[in-house]
Amino acid sequence: MAEYLRVSVGQHSDAGGKSCNQDFHGVRIPEGAELESKGVAMALADGISSSAVAHIASETAVKSFLQDYFCTSAAWSVKKSGDRVIAATNAWLTSHTNNSWARYDKDRGYVCTFTALVVKSTRAYFFHVGDARAYRVHGRGLEQLTRDHRQWISPDKSYLGRALGVNDQVEVDYHTVAVVPGDTFVLVTDGIHEVLGPNDIAAVIAENADDLNAAAEAVVRAAYDQGSDDNLTVQILRVEQIPQPKIHEFQQHAAELPFPPALGARSLIDGFEIVRELHMSNRSYVYLAVDTATGSKVVLKVPATDVREDPVALEQFLAEEWVARRIDSPYVLRSYQRSLAQNFLYVVTEYIEGQTLTQWMRDNPRAHFARVRALVEQIGKALRAFHRQDMIHQDVRPANVMIDSIGTAKLIDFGTVKVAGISEGIGSEDETILGTQQYSAPEYFMGEGGSARSDVFSLGVITYQMLTGRLPYGPEASQVRSRAGLNRLKYPPVCHYNRSCPTWIDGALRKALHPHPDRRYAEVSEFIHDLYHPRREFVNAVRPPLIERNPEAVWKGVSLLLAVIVVGQLMLSYL
Question: Distance between CA 453 and CA 442 in Å, rounded?
Answer without folding.
Answer: 11
